Amino acid sequence: MGDRVEIFEMGPRDGLQNEKREIPVAEKIALVDCLSRAGFRRIEVASFVSPKWVPQMAGSGEVLAGITRADGVSYAALTPNMRGYQDAVAAQADEIAVFASASEGFSKANINATIAESIARFVPILEAAREIGLPVRGYVSCVTDCPFDGPTPPGRVAEVAGRLLDLGCYEVSLGDTVGQGTPESITAMLGAALDRVPAAKLAGHYHDTAGRALINIDASLELGVRVFDAAVGGLGGCPYAPGAAGNVATEAVVNHLTEQGYETGLDMAVLDEAAQMARMMRTG
Ligand code: HMG
Ligand code: MG
């Protein structure tokens, strides 16, 4: 049996949060329901952020209420603050994610807080989640490059990732938000992050702006990372990171990993169906 790699599907959240067209909740639900048949263990479907900041995610509660939940699939939601946490719990998200940045410029642009302020906001969220046994994932954005501050020192990534782990995040996903990382910068960044967080608790979250996400995944595999975030059809980007393209396409990652003998447990025919749906949603 080949080595197992897990893909955390991001399309319904990281993908759709950046679409220009207002996508009806029913279309989002249809996409999630299709993805639920593909074999993912985790799908990010919702984001309880301010609708003034990201109007595309306003229907997140309805999405969680309307999907057909498949056994063994964890449906995840982003939560920037206590208000988002409460909404995610009310909507019965199976897990939540807090999101920080390794660069101050992006932190301010994305969540209107310094890195330290954002971490302070996460403390009560993690405490509340621990009390009810709700798993919390952590994100660190701009792990190699920031659109406002330039290159990110690897030590900053290690610091923020380590802090999220210490607070109780079960996994830390490292975001190349603007897709400018190279195998060299990803390797240097991971080298530092691994001093604070074991490989088994790290994930790679690479946007494909420069077409290097797959080789950056290869560099991460070399260092023992076995979880990657991806979005069907390469959907998305981040509204607060100018020029950011979508996450690397799930189907491209699956093909790339399969060629190298890794197993993902995903059904390619269902993924193709979902990717086609995603492309239709994009052109609307
Ligand atoms: P703020 O303006 O500093 O905060 O925003 P505020 O407390 O003054 O709230 C502003 C308004 O939003 C208020 O409404 C609040 O009630 C409301 P008003 O009084 O003006 O009518 N509000 C909320 N509404 C619904 N749900 C909430 C909520 N919180 C406040 N949870 C805030 C601070 C964090 C809220 C804002 O900056 C925000 O929502 N940012 C989210 C930005 C975002 O979603 N970015 C994309 C996701 S991150 C990403 O894509 C990166 C990632 O993929 C990894 C990578 O690629 O690197 C994860
Ligand atoms: Mg992202």
UniProtKB/TrEMBL annotation:
- Residues forming coiled coils: none
Q: Which SUPFAM superfamilies match?
A: Aldolase
- Reading the lineage from the top rank, the first entry is Bacteria
- Judged by the first EC level, this protein's enzyme class is lyase
The Pyruvate carboxyltransferase domain extends over 5-272
Assigned EC number: 4.1.3.4
Q: List the InterPro entries.
A: Aldolase_TIM, HMGL, PYR_CT
Q: What molecular function terms (GO) are annotated for this protein? A: hydroxymethylglutaryl-CoA lyase activity; metal ion binding
One GO biological process term is: L-leucine catabolic process
What UniProt keywords are attached to this protein's entry?
A: Lyase, Metal-binding
Kindly indicate whether the keyword Lyase belongs to this entry. Answer: yes
Which family, according to the similarity comment? Answer: Belongs to the HMG-CoA lyase family.
According to UniProt, the name of this protein is Hydroxymethylglutaryl-CoA lyase YngG
| Gene source species | Falsiruegeria litorea R37
